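Listing 4. Sequential folding, example run.
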Amino acid sequence: MAATARGGRPVSKPCACGRLHMDITDSVVSPQTGEVEMSKKDMFLKLDSKRGGAVKGESEDPAHPGEMVVLDFTWGMTSVVSTGFSGKETKPAQLELRITKYVDTASTGLMSVMKTNDEIKKAVLTVRKAGGKQEDYFSIAIQGGRITSLEVSSEGDHPTLTERLSLTFNKIEVQYKAQSALGALKGASTFQDEVTPG
């Protein structure tokens, strides 16, 4: 489970499964509709496939028009121990990027991408702080991947359908930007990696 804190900032915490879980902490569930409010507009996914092109979502946000609105995501790394001539070696392994979102206009496009095994040319997940001066401060960009699973479900009596998909990738770039008390973004720190087949 993800650790939580107030202030609209995701808190990350490794769990026993080796994954780094990220979640927006200022989200609330409406007692009238059962839908997640506030944080549902703070995370966005932009996805372009090699053959099908851009998969359009329903975001009307000026900074992320036509992107998919994301409710939740998980991603992380784990250590894999292998035995060779020089003894045991520990290598990091990338876990899939898993996205949870509402069913929207992008859903059938994502289904087509998976059905045709279309390559993900590039997908960018962006996280923005809630409240105050809203700035994109965390992002995960992947390239050369595939949609490996897609699942649509309903939560109890809630009328809104949710969709969960898992994305593999060959390249990943994670970027974080610190933010000052006045809301100005500071310099970015970046992590990059490539997945080696086999």
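-- end of first protein; second protein begins --
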Amino acid sequence: MMSSATKLKLSIVAVAVVLLLLGGLFWYFRVHTKTPEYALHAIEDALDRNDETLFLRHVRLDAVLDAGYDDFMRGTMDAEFGHSREASAALEDFSKMLKPAFINMLKDAVHTRLTTGEWPSADVIEEGTDTENILSRIGVRDLTFREIARLTRDEEAQTAEADIVAHQGEADADFTFKILLVPSEEGDWQVVSIQNLHEYAVLLEQARRLRVEAYLEETDAIMARHDQTSGAAQLRLYSVLGAGALGSQATRDMARQIMEQDILVDWQERKDELAAVSVPRSMQSLHQLRLKICDLHIAYAQGYAAWMTDKNAATIRGAESSLRQAEVLEVEASFLVQRAKRLFGDKME
């Protein structure tokens, strides 16, 4: 039978354990959960678990987007136009006009991310929508969290600052976001601003320009090389046709051979080389246009070669229709190239 002393000791131990548990719970819920460290990890957890309520408990989203929009747009304008007062004033007015719609669409996108785990669709069919343009513009899909590099707390000012390192895939560089946190009335620490979105916008815009410049240089070289090859083949074709007659099967066979073995092959190789190029988002329309032009020239070469054999008027009409479409698209592609060079070519310094 247990003695009174033993019972007393067990009671004391039980009370101590309960007190320790209560103390631990108090520390966790009243101390640890009311720290900037907890807030940052809670935000990360909310993103992992698609917990919108937890996220909004620790992110003052309206404040972040309001100030963030202004800083990001100023950075974008500085990167694009330098410090031109005339351009800045005009664009700043335009930026203010767009701000409410921009923020609402971004809030909707954040809601989608927090409830589904994914940003709104970036499928090709969806390209061109306002939300897609905004998400592409700010590069949010290309951000990958690396680490919380630093966290400092100012007890007197009741603020905390954190350095959040993320990899920006489009720029292929790490960027450190400067995060400001303050406690809410309930004591929960909240992110209230990202303090260096101006610098982030400049980084992103400069990286995009470099990628566009590299894309234009690479594809221009491909196009020039193949233009020379196909041009020489066209001269051989004209020489054969000029020296012979289309009524001659020998002439037609030589023309078909040049079209199939030189011109057709060259356009197929051109398309393959273009398809292998890394394409910036802003150049996707131009790139798809160039691939379509290749397809039309391939169709023309195939149709022309077939006509050399079947002598069917419908065959050559179809081939010439493809060629005319290609020529129209080539004018459009040339315009897009010149526009890209005007926008990016003179601003790389």
